[in-house]
């Protein structure tokens, strides 16, 4: 059969379903193969309130390294991750602006820029690295970028020692004055990935409300395509459809459950939590774990179908005081960072987030793509702009990059950088590996030495 275009869709009434990378999309000659490799997907996963540094910092360097207690769950994907030590975010420090470490942590993480300290509408920050990459790469996909989260954002008011609340709940910024916003509803995120636009969009919304599967709407198109595919591609299609249906079923299950009722962050700690509520009481779910896993699964579908190549995901807002009840922790997360002798509770929260990230990485590794795996063609950064949550500092930041970037990044290592290396250097390197030709970003001083095969040691 003729080569199948990479941008092939299955269509139905109000539905546009992208396809995974199939063998039928591979070019027939070597010259075409060199320009038809799977694209590099970029992702940034943000976790709040820093980590307990003593339980995070790995020992050894290069391939001869040992995981610590908190990052031990990454052992299952050791050969697919790169641990990076001694990165820093100087612009998350006060630099004359006084208290407000959490607001600056969220604001600075992907912008590497000092946030204007204001509680009014005159917010000012900088464009984030995901949006820089989207400007260069986003026109090639259905969605230029996708911004996900699990806690609602607050668009007005003063939080965290006089900073606008908007800094706490946005890591993606389209411009210095325009945050990208965060989608916390899995159903709406799913609709963005697979819903048609224009007049067909209303039909899709009706389908969604009636909980009809998108697979039913594209069944005829799918049957026609199957007849043109070989056995390996037919198997890939079946596995992909199973993943889509599994996500739909999870969304339906969440819709049937009552809203969760978690403790609010109403405890004022030195004025930092004034008026700020971080628990997502309006999200229908049977728990936080299911919510973040569903968002991770949506990320996998988005990457697999090339709906977008650029995703950010906030596991919680920057000053969340969520109580991790599934870990039998009843005190709020932020409150714990200000308490003495609570290292064990904090470490359990840290390790939980690492375990879920490792699960996501393993899922991407299980998805075949062009002779390798989907993970092979990703660069996913798991990190934050706060080092030790108890100290509220911004150096020695915990950071992991998963995926090989199409073979350009050597994983299975611990990269121990010089102290105070700007995290923005990593952002320059990851964006360049995906094809965004940037030389400088934020407070970067160059590329991250030793990160990619063409960037030295």
TrEMBL record:
Cross-referenced InterPro entries: DUF1552, TAT_signal
Pfam families, per the entry: HXXSHH
Protein known as: DUF1552 domain-containing protein
Organism of derivation: Lignipirellula cremea
